[in-house]
Amino acid sequence: MVDKSRRNFIIGMAGLGALAAAGWGVAGWSLSRVSGTKVTSATPAFGQGVKIIFVGHWGSENVFGNVVERGYDDACALTGANCIKMYRPKTDADLQEIISNLQVAINQTPDVLITTDIYTAVQPYLHQASQEGIIVILTNVNAPTQADFEYTGAISFIGQNLVTAGYTQAQALSKYFPSNSHVVIIDEGPGQVWAQQRNQGIEEFLKQYGCTWDVIESSFDLSQVTSQMTAYLEAHPDTKAILSNGYGGAVAMDVFPKLGIQPGQIPVATFDITPQVLNAIIAGYVTLTTDQQPYLQGD
After folding, report:
1. Environment class of residue 43 by beta-carbon count within 10 Å: exposed (0-12), middle (13-18) or buried (19+)?
2. Residue 10 pLDDT greater than 50, yes or no
3. CATH topology identical between 4-156 and 162-295
4. pLDDT in tens, 245-280
């Protein structure tokens, strides 16, 4: 049987964390599930005795995931919570390993499960966790619809509105390329909810802007992105812009010089602030990037 008073206390703390994130502009959907719950002020070790498990979808090569994990570790130390390590797949977004990690986490009966709705296929496990009295918090990748969110039983989401982010990215980059031109989208997460939603926003703007576009299905393996970008630009020299739904677009810094393309000649937009992206911005190869506060998503 679930200890409802303990559960409500922990939900209050979760609500506090989500509200704090909202102050930084990263809170999502709604906190309707925590309405009427007394929120407890944050004090050192206020999370003592609360067992928390974080199941992420980022592989070891994913620098964004490394920052999220650092935020999680720091928050655990700050609050004194009994945090289990962040479970991450060996390969980025490996569905079967993510599901396996969720099952391992649920079997440990934590008070709180923090995770991402990276694929709709994980939702039955989130639903199971919430039905068993585990508090589920979504971060980074929200459920694609409100109905999906309700099904998971999650109490809140902390992260970016991904459709809006994609639209805004394309709109911002449009200052640097003409309407009715041809562009390319680099999809670094084919089949993953976050990538689908960002692409939806990007394509919505491009349609309004009268553009044509192709989508390159890629990954977070920067060597793969480099090879694909090179081949595409060689075959499509009329490409007027590159929109990456992850940080892979930063490889333009390596690709462009080999093709005789000058910095800024083809505008490039990416997501996230990584060392590669920052270096490419400084060198003039990436025009803009959109960050989403990964540290706070773990914190």
Report:
1. exposed
2. yes
3. yes
4. 999 999 999 999 999 999 999 999 999 999 999 999
Cβ atoms of 177 and 243 closer than 8 Å: no
- pLDDT tens for 132-147 read 999 999 999 999 999 9
d(CA 37, CA 11): 8
For the domain spanning 162-295, the CATH number is: 3.40.50.2300
Residue spans per domain, the chain? 4-156, 162-295
User: Using one digit for the tens of pLDDT, what is the confidence trace for 74-107?
Assistant: 999 999 999 998 999 999 999 999 999 999 999 9
CATH T-level fold of 4-156: Rossmann fold (3.40.50)
Total-model pTM: 0.82
Which residues, including other chains, have CB under 8 Å from residue 112's CB and lie 6 or more apart?
A: 10, 14, 50, 51, 52, 53, 134, 135, 136, 137
